[in-house]
Sequence to fold (271 residues):
Amino acid sequence: MPLANAPRYNVPVTASRFHSAIRRAKGVPALTWQGFSQLLWPAVCDVCNEAICDTDKNLCPKCWGELLKCTAGNYCPRCGRDVVSRYGLIGGACAACREQRFYFDGIARAGVYADALQQMILAFKHDRSEMATTLASWADAALQGSRFYDRIDLLVPVPLYWTRRLRRGYNQSYLIARRLHHPRARISTDLVRARRTDPQPQMPTPAARARNVAGAFVVRAGHNFSGKTICLIDDIKTSGSTLNECAKTLKEVGAARVYALVLAVAGQNVR
Fold:
């Protein structure tokens, strides 16, 4: 039975305070360096360069709002264009693409090519390779929510011609593919661009875009796509000519199904 006047030992409390003080002392250099870094290199928005807090995750509130707007809404699972409602689809296609022929079997998109998302993709295509991390997270969410996610065997980045790849220093589609999460699918770079093509945005019509990339892609000799379900990875889809030619090439060598994942769909009124 404890004695009423027995001394009370506060060693645990003292030890706890001592260790807390040590932890705070250890944190001082980190906090000091963090503050010093913010003074020398203040955080700015990746899109508009406005000053932001470290907790804003690379974008200012205005650009986050634009990005969320770009990545919201319903879209046609066949062509990727905006639709008011999925109930407006007939046979899985919207009115804009019902009469069009696609070699790819469906598409998933992160958003529409506008506002903050457009600016991020343009920066990504012009030396801002670090944008891949943010953009790939949106693409990954789109892929995981797609109707073909569980069917994919291979992720195939749309290739650049070697001279353009050398000048840019990277293939943006490949950087996105590397950051996608899939339990089974692996990346294949066995689809190559055999000839240099003009930039698609310079083409005045969808027909000109199709002619520009006709016969531009081949599969490396000895590489087998037979019976595989493939997901093409690209940054922007406008008329779909590039994706169409890639899918056609892959199906000619035996691919069973070819789907597409893009960061954004542009040209909502382009046929």
